[in-house]
TrEMBL record:
The lineage of its organism: Bacteria, Bacillati, Bacillota, Clostridia, Eubacteriales. Keywords: Hydrolase, Metal-binding, Metalloprotease, Protease, Zinc. The keyword Protease applies. This is MPN domain-containing protein. InterPro entries: MPN, RadC_JAB, UPF0758, UPF0758_CS. PROSITE patterns: MPN, UPF0758. It comes from Ruminococcus bovis.
């Protein structure tokens, strides 16, 4: 009982410190993780657990990006590991929702910045599609494929159907290189050329293909390797 009272008092002080400051930035990283773990380990000393996890993985982001089974190898429960794994997912949901506006005009000069948050915490390939009308207003945004793919496996048919359903004037696709760099492969260039040709046949234009890797991206429309194959963004 005495230990529980000590933990309870410590948690109360930590929570009050957060409420008074209004931010987690005043805490050390192990303290930030310690507080998160309060809600998975209601009766344990989460300070020690936080130190153990950060010593093992090196950083909070590396911890969150690790497989659940690997996290559990540090002695935490599946319940706790799931909470940790949900952090990148909720981060991505929060950012997407915060900036979501069905009536917004997309800033075509910063398409990479638009897609970058969508890949927070993604450890496998995923293709996103953005469709717009002739004025640059967003008509559709969503994931159209997951997992590794080649030019023959790109969901061209699904993209065409969505373009036709929304009567989209312009389209942008993006995908990520989870374990690589934001540089187009030969396959990426083939995929891009195929999409440009296919959408042109139905009166729509692919204006960019964004490749994301970690916290970096490249716009193929602005790349010297492929830029000449795209329609100009202000056409």
């Amino acid at each position: 009982m005495a230990n529980e009272n000590v933990h309870a008092n410590h948690r109360s002080r930590m929570k009050k410190k957060f409420l008074d400051a209004g931010t987690l930035e005043i805490f050390e990283q192990y303290e930030q993780l310690e507080m998160l773990l309060y809600y998975a380990c209601p009766r344990k000393d989460t300070n020690g657990i936080a130190h153990k996890l950060l010593n093992k993985f090196g950083s909070f982001s590396a911890l969150c990006d690790s497989p659940i089974n690997t996290i559990m190898e540090c002695g935490v429960s599946e319940h706790t590991a799931i909470l940790i794994k949900m952090i990148p997912e909720f981060t991505r949901i929060y950012i997407s929702d915060k900036h979501n506006n069905a009536n917004k005009i997309i800033d075509l000069e910063h398409l990479g910045d638009y897609f970058l948050p969508k890949y927070i915490g993604k450890d496998s390939e995923e293709v996103y599609l953005l469709l717009m009308d002739s004025k640059g207003k967003e008509l559709f945004f969503g994931s159209v494929a997951r997992g590794s793919f080649t030019s023959s496996e790109m969901p061209v048919r699904k993209i065409v159907e969505l373009v036709m359903n929304y009567n989209a004037h312009t389209a942008v696709v993006a995908h990520n290189h989870p374990s690589g760099v934001a540089f187009p492969s030969k396959e990426d260039i083939i995929i891009t050329k195929n999409l440009i040709t296919t959408l042109d046949l139905i009166g729509s234009h692919l204006i960019d293909h964004i490749i994301v890797a970690d916290n970096d991206f490249i716009s193929l429309a602005e790349s010297e390797l492929t830029g000449s194959i795209f329609y100009l963004k202000d056409d």
